[in-house]
Design brief:
The protein is mainly α and 193 residues long. The protein has helices at 5-10, 16-19, 27-38, 44-53, 66-71, 106-118, 129-134, 164-179, 185-189; strands spanning 97-101, 124-128, 155-157. The protein folds into two domains: 5-38, no CATH class; 47-189, Rossmann fold. The structure holds iron/sulfur cluster. Residues 64-66, 102-103, 129-131, 136, 160-161 line the site of iron/sulfur cluster (SF4).
């Protein structure tokens, strides 16, 4: 909104120059006028969300063929360092993003859940590929029919396997959710016991 002599006076500015009819705004008044376009304002919550999206650290957790595609996102071709995410952590206590890449056998479900429980909040989960999302082609007694049966999933990435670009798209969508103030999936849906 552009300010002028009249609006400055109306806003309570008692400067002699402002009150002087026909004189026009001085340097100070002109600076006030441009202040709104030169100063960036935000809220603490938005600043924290922005910082979180610029430093999500994925847990090192590859299960099957999809994991090969996941590993390639740290390469120079895809360069996930652009998002401050190249530091895949070997300890869940230092990670806040679990990328479930590959089919999850029933035997693996308990360790997966244990790793998720050891991650600090806030934390997010990406189900990468058809197998992690729904069991994929492995509709049998050995494979969990969707990892969302044991952990709350924030983003599903389709494909068999999804290309690294698809995983990058999932990561960008997750960042958009966080920036928009959408809470993590465990807050929305709760966590199965
Ligand atoms: S979705 Fe396809 S590529 Fe990924 S783990 Fe399953 S079979 Fe392998």
């Amino acid at each position: 909104m552009a300010l002028n002599d009249k609006s400055l006076a109306a806003r309570g500015l008692q400067s002699e120059r402002v009150q002087w009819v026909g004189k026009g705004p001085g340097v100070f008044e002109r600076e006030v006028e441009s202040l709104e376009t030169e100063v960036g304002l935000t809220t603490l919550a938005k600043a924290v969300a922005w910082a979180q999206t610029k430093s999500m650290w994925p847990d090192t957790f590859g299960l099957a063929c999809c994991a090969i595609e996941m590993m390639s996102i740290v390469s120079s071709r895809y360069d996930i360092a652009r998002f401050g995410m190249e530091a895949f952590r070997s300890s869940p206590r230092q990670a806040d993003l679990l990328i479930v890449s590959g089919r999850v056998s029933h035997k693996m479900a308990a360790p997966l859940r244990q790793i998720y429980d050891q991650m600090l909040e806030p934390k997010w989960v990406i189900a990468m590929g058809a197998c992690a999302s729904s069991g994929g082609m492995f509709n049998n007694y050995a494979i969990l029919q969707g990892v969302d049966r044991v952990v709350p999933v924030d983003i599903h990435v389709p494909g068999c396997p999804p290309r690294p670009e698809a995983l990058m798209e999932g990561i960008v969508r997750l960042h958009e959710k966080v920036n928009a103030g959408v809470p993590p999936a465990y807050e929305i849906r709760g966590v199965a016991e």
